[in-house]
Amino acid sequence: MHLTERREGEIALPFNPGDQADATIRFIGRVTSPWTDRSECPKNMTAARETGQPASIEIDGPFRQGLLGLEAFTHAILLSWFDRAQRNLIVQKPRHASDAKGVFALRSPVRPNPVGLHVVRLTSVDLTTGLIGIDAIDLLDGTPVVDVKPYFSSADAVPDAVRPRVRTC
Hints:
Elements: E1 11-12, E2 29-32, H1 45-51, E3 55-59, E4 75-81, E5 89-92, E6 101-102, E7 115-126, E8 131-134, E9 144-150, H2 153-156
Antiparallel strand pairs: 1-5, 2-3, 2-9, 3-8, 4-7, 4-9, 5-6, 7-8
């Protein structure tokens, strides 16, 4: 299926949210991953970890001092920019789902503001080179990085969170 084709039940916005910016985002680096094609890329971090393929984040020079202290953490939250994703679908029908859903009820990269959220395990942090080693990633090689934040299990984990049951057929 071509990236701009619509599945049954999908609805596109009458405009492209990327055509007019409300804010400015400065990318601070790029992801280096083994995935160069969307069809090969794992659909989530669980699937990415199952491949056993490590990845890295390279932070650009001016932002490298911001890594100071990150090496003390085991995990971080990575915010990415899905630069190759469509931005105009507001209702989508994922390949694995039986029903269409609004974009805000999905984790799809196709969304008005294509921001990705990834909890990564840190394997190394090098302030000099700006390289952050991570256990795995569900992003294409070269994906821009918006931000990196330390993960706090005391504040970021929500043990009583629930999600709807997923139908398998």
